[in-house]
Design goal:
The complex is a heterodimer of chains A (133) and B (398). With 133 residues, chain A is of the alpha+beta class. In chain A, 17% of the residues lie in helices and 32% in strands. Chain A has two domains: 68 residues, 2-Layer Sandwich (Alpha-Beta Plaits); 58 residues, 2-Layer Sandwich (Alpha-Beta Plaits), CATH 3.30.70. Chain A is elongated, with a radius of gyration of 16 Å. By secondary structure, chain B is α+β, with helices and mostly antiparallel strands. In chain B, the strands form eight sheets. In chain B, strands 3, 4, 7, 10, 16, 17, 20, 21 and 22 form a nine-stranded antiparallel β-sheet that branches. A four-stranded antiparallel β-sheet of chain B has the order 6-5-8-9. The chains are: A alpha+beta (133), B alpha+beta (398).
Chain lengths: 133, 398
């Protein structure tokens, strides 16, 4: 069975819990951290590959901690034709996947940093950020 | 006595292919390198540019008569209502209008995916537009309804007329409340979570002519990718020079009403825009050429982001409730750096106005002039300047 790709969203209160340790030690899961954006006392996100017989139980443990889990079954892409490089997304994107290059002030999209929160999809004034399944 | 040039002299140089045309960014570098006097002698025209949402925009459309004739009372273009209270088949389509069945903010924050600005973009992209209209029928205009399609080329007139564009300066918007707010300045996170601004700074047209010495009624401009004109001062044109403790913080408050033939404009420069939780609008590209007639005009055109300031305004309480005052001023150099300090807190900044597009406009206008395709027009009348101290009125509950 191939590993399952998931996105975790956790609150400021849960960001300091040793979740990955528990998944490995208590649920015997093979974990690969694809992306992580974790800061003490701040909301965080993590993209994981999870493999193991007790993965369902492991994810239930995370949910009990208040972590929101989503399947990673889609990606965010930028429609280059539509983007006008205004920058309205750059202070909203929580991971810096959308950022202004200086001094050109062009908006750069770094897909590897995206954690699929989809805020940009909602707030882009010209609807240039799209969800691809 | 420094150099003095006239519009006619500059236009003769443009015609002869000898005019020196630079963007406002380039002028700053030239002044720094050669000094103001030399720059004034060398440079004939400075081009500016801005590309940002400008809500007070719209188009007059004259649709052509039907058979039998019809006095269109209510009109919808792709489902977006247009104002028909004009002659039989003339309408005005406003950029912020939305369909009557749009959920608006009932499912907060509303998306406002398609409005008048999007119809204008589709029109100028030469896409077919569905038109529905109803009328009450008269002896001279008997027809009562129509449901058909049109394109920008099938109608008689399509005139972009924007009552307020190219705001000289704009607030830097923040949110002091405890909740996320959705505004025309974008999504503002609680407790100074971000700061949004919407001006091209040192490239922006009206920041470069604070006393309206060159930009006036009849000034030929880049508008929506084509050629347009300054029609009048814009609505809410209350120009002033911001000062704090005697320090000049640059101009604010001026606006332009602009007009041009929509048929020669481009969907790249008139872009339907949606602000989550706020509404639909249109992003408009505008570029204004500034003739360097004398040293004073050159000096104003060469001001830098470091010398131009925006007031920081709380959109959580002060702005919606019309409370006076602000949280201080911040320079465009600081805003463009990505981080400012407000109330002792580091706040990340983001623009809503596209600087890459503004630069493209200034460069395009420069090319048009250098190629002899675009000549400068001398204003037939000046716009009100800060010295007139025009003041804003408010609508009171009585």
């Amino acid at each position: 069975m191939s590993p399952k790709r998931i996105v975790l969203h956790f609150s400021a209160e849960t960001s300091d819990k040793p979740m990955i340790y528990r998944l490995v030690k208590d649920y015997d899961l093979v974990i690969n951290i694809v992306k992580a954006n974790v800061n003490p006392q701040k909301e965080g996100t993590m993209v994981l590959e999870v493999e193991g017989e007790k993965s369902a139980q492991g994810l239930d443990y995370l949910r009990r901690l208040g972590v929101t889990i989503e399947d990673l079954d889609r990606e965010i892409v930028r429609n280059e034709e539509k983007c006008v490089m205004c920058g309205a997304c750059t202070a909203i994107c929580p991971t810096g996947a959308l950022r202004l290059e200086r001094p050109s002030m062009e908006v750069r999209f770094i897909g590897d940093l995206c954690v699929l929160c989809e805020l940009c999809v909602k707030i882009c004034p010209v609807r240039a950020m799209e969800v691809r399944l | 006595m420094g150099v003095e040039k006239t519009y006619a002299e500059i236009n003769a140089k443009i015609k002869a292919g000898q005019a020196v045309v630079v963007t406002a960014d380039e002028l700053i570098a030239i002044v720094e390198e050669k000094g103001l006097s030399q720059a004034t002698r060398e440079v004939d025209v400075v081009t500016t540019g801005t590309f940002a949402p400008m809500c007070s925009s719209g188009a007059f459309l004259s649709l052509g008569h039907t058979a039998p004739r019809m006095k269109m009372q209510k009109v919808w273009l792709n489902g977006v209502p247009a104002y028909g209270g004009l002659a039989a088949v003339d309408v005005y389509l406003g950029a912020t209008e939305v369909p009557e069945d749009d959920p608006l903010n009932s499912n907060y924050p509303g998306e406002f995916r398609y409005g008048g600005g999007h119809v204008i973009q589709d029109l100028v992209a030469r896409k077919p537009i569905r038109i529905k209209a109803v009328g009450y029928g008269t002896d001279c205009y008997p027809r009562r309804e129509i449901d058909t399609t049109l394109t920008i080329d099938s109608i008689n007139e399509a005139t972009l007329f924007n009552p307020r564009n190219a705001y000289q300066n704009y607030n830097c918007a923040v949110n002091l409340t405890e909740r996320v707010i959705y505004t025309y300045m974008g999504m503002l996170k609680p407790q100074l979570g971000n700061a949004h601004y919407s001006t091209a700074g040192q490239l922006s047209p009206l920041l470069k002519d604070p006393y309206f010495q060159t930009i006036g009624i009849g000034t030929r401009i880049f508008l929506g990718g084509g050629i347009g004109y300054v029609a009048w001062h814009g609505t809410q044109h209350f120009p002033s020079i911001q000062t704090v403790d005697g320090d000049n913080l640059g101009p604010a408050g001026g606006t332009l009403a602009v007009i041009g033939d929509l048929k020669q404009m481009s969907p790249r420069w008139l872009v339907g825009t949606s602000y989550l939780g706020y509404g639909a609008t249109i992003s408009v590209g505008i570029g204004v050429p500034i003739p360097i007639l004398n040293e004073e005009i050159a000096r104003y055109a060469a001001v830098k982001d470091e010398e131009l300031f925006a007031p920081i305004v709380d959109y959580g309480d002060a702005y919606p409730n019309l409370k006076p005052g602000n949280l201080g001023y911040v320079s465009y150099a600081d805003l463009k750096s990505g981080q400012i300090t407000v109330d002792g807190k580091q706040v990340i900044t983001a623009p809503l106005s596209s600087l890459p597009r503004a630069r493209e406009i200034a460069a395009t206008l420069k090319d048009w002039i250098l190629n002899g395709q675009f000549f400068l027009s001398e204003p037939v009348q000046a716009l009100p300047s800060p010295t007139e101290r025009r003041q804003s009125n408010f609508l009171h509950d009585r």
